Amino acid sequence: MKILLTGKPGVGKTTVVKKVVQKLKDKVIGFWTEDIRDKLNRRTGFKIVTTEGTEAILASKYLFETPYKVGSYYVDVETFEKVVIPVLEKALKEDKTVVIDEIGKMELFSKRFISVVEEIFEKKEKILATVPIKDVHPFVKKVKERKDVLLIEVTLSNRNYLPEKIIQMLEK
Fold first, then answer.
1. What is the DSSP string of 126-141?
2. Are 81 and 113 in contact (CB under 8 A)?
3. 29: exposed, middle or buried (C-beta count within 10 Å: 0-12, 13-18, 19+)?
4. DSSP secondary-structure letter at 14?
5. Are 106 and 141 in contact (CB under 8 A)?
6. 160 Cβ contact partners less than 8 Å away, ≥ 6 residues apart
7. What is residue 158's predicted lDDT score, i.e. its pLDDT?
8. pLDDT digits over 110-164, tens only?
9. What percent of the chain stands above pLDDT 70?
10. How far is CA 115 from CA 44, 67, 147, 172, in A?
11. How many CB atoms lie within 10 A of CB 155?
12. Which one, of 6, 20, 10, 4, lies nearest residue 161 by Cα?
């Protein structure tokens, strides 16, 4: 089962993913993204967290500048690749559900990421990934249009029961 979660920003896609990861524990491999917030609770960036416990800053408004930018966030593609690519390559060799949060603008600056995600979608049976609601990149559209994916929109009314539903689908 290849499940793609989509929905408006802030609706709870990552929260759904994290709840699934917490329940399935060592049956999953991959990564998710989390907000970095300042003392006034304003978002200043994003970090990546892998299922193996590695964390790194994906994007920031203030900590660094790179040629890659989405809105006011500079994206650290090199660090992203160092942390995420090895985990995704390992996922290809293991019999686990692959978690990819998310296949979005920032992550898609990496051609290596696109390549390994394509390979995962070709070779793996169990995938839980998130994608933006808008086709922000041709690759997002391509993944959404695959015949072997189930696209689920996360909403305020379904986000609380979705983790359990997704676990049931992945464990079939």
1. -EEEE--SS--SHHHH
2. yes
3. buried
4. H
5. no
6. none
7. 96
8. 999 999 999 999 999 999 999 999 988 999 999 999 999 999 999 999 999 999 9
9. 100
10. 29, 21, 19, 28
11. 12
12. 20
Q: Letter for the amino acid at 124? A: K
What pTM value is reported for the model? 0.95
Q: How far apart are CA 51 and CA 14, in angstroms?
A: 13
Per the listing, tokens 């930018």 go with 69
Enumerate residues 6+ apart whose C-beta is below 8 A from 98: 28, 29, 30, 88, 91, 120, 124, 126, 127, 128, 129
Q: Residue 38 forms beta bridges with which residues?
A: none
Quote the DSSP letter at residue 147. Answer: T
Q: Which amino acid would we find at residue 133? A: I
Within 8 A by CB and 6+ apart from 166, the residues are 3, 16, 20, 128, 152
Best CATH choice for the domain 2-32+78-171 from the list 3.40.50.300, 3.40.50.720, 3.90.180.10, 1.20.1600.10: 3.40.50.300
Mean pLDDT of 70-78: 97
Cβ 104 vs Cβ 117: under 8 Å: no
